[in-house]
Amino acid sequence: QLQLTESGGGSVQAGGSLRLSCAASEVVPNDYAIGWFRQAPGKEREAVSWISFLDGRTWYTDSVQGRFTITRDNAKNTAYLQMDNVNVEDMAIYLCAADLLVKFTAYPFAINNWGLGTLVTVSS
What we know:
Elements: E1 4-7, E2 10-13, E3 18-24, E4 32-39, E5 46-52, E6 58-60, E7 68-73, E8 78-83, E9 92-100, H1 101-106, E10 113-114, E11 118-123
């Protein structure tokens, strides 16, 4: 089972940028994806973005499209989430997840590998 460690969270002003990192404890299989979910107080966990470790295919939820960019470094077993032009609605705990790509696309509730999360706070 992969262990995932997030880093890069913190405080940022609205309109600013942050880069989150998610490092896996071992080689990420090619049929896996790494993705980011977020959970704000009183809200349900929301999928934000994912990236395939095979071909780099990406997906973004509508609210971050054009502002966030997910990338991966296969050699470092790490994925990154570049968050630009953040707004107060982006404030949440961001959790990294890794599993078979099909789980991200079809049944994310079955994803097995999760990080502990990193907090992103946005001030207006």
